[in-house]
Design a protein that fits this description.
8 strands, alpha/beta, 8 helices
Amino acid sequence: MLPRLYAITDGQKYGANFWDNLYKVLDKGVRMIQLREKSLSGREYYEKALKAREITKEYSAILLINDRIDVALAVGADGVHLPQNGIPPSCVRKMKKDLIVGFSAHDLESALYAESEGADFITLGPIFKTSSHPDAEPIGLNTLKEISKRVSIPVYALGGISWERIKLCYKNGAYGIAGISLFLE
């Protein structure tokens, strides 16, 4: 069973205290971490992922690598999280069947695609207006509810989630909550 709380790293938001912030998130009880570091070179990403793997093992937490199955395999991560326009989840399954595969969905079509391709879960968003993607139009709670009813895989609400909004997301079908800034508060 997948954990309900899911933290996504961001080098800018985690800042110079990246590792302290990762520990802070894990100390709060979050047990699924997505290492999402788009600005790093392959080697830098690998080295950061190695350290993240060590730390997440200390907490028996799941480590997902964003969009880089090669890095995930190299560091022994638990899985990958694929962007909507990335490689299909079925390709990951062909490479390594037991990896957890997450998928970024933004509408019903992409959610159904992820499920049909064998993704284990989706992140759906942005549910609300978010500072990490200020130009993205929020999809809202009704879309969260509709998509959660239409797919059989877990749906993590993402985007503009605050501690005050978590209950709203659960009431509208979210299996779990994903966030970047949320768990740093």
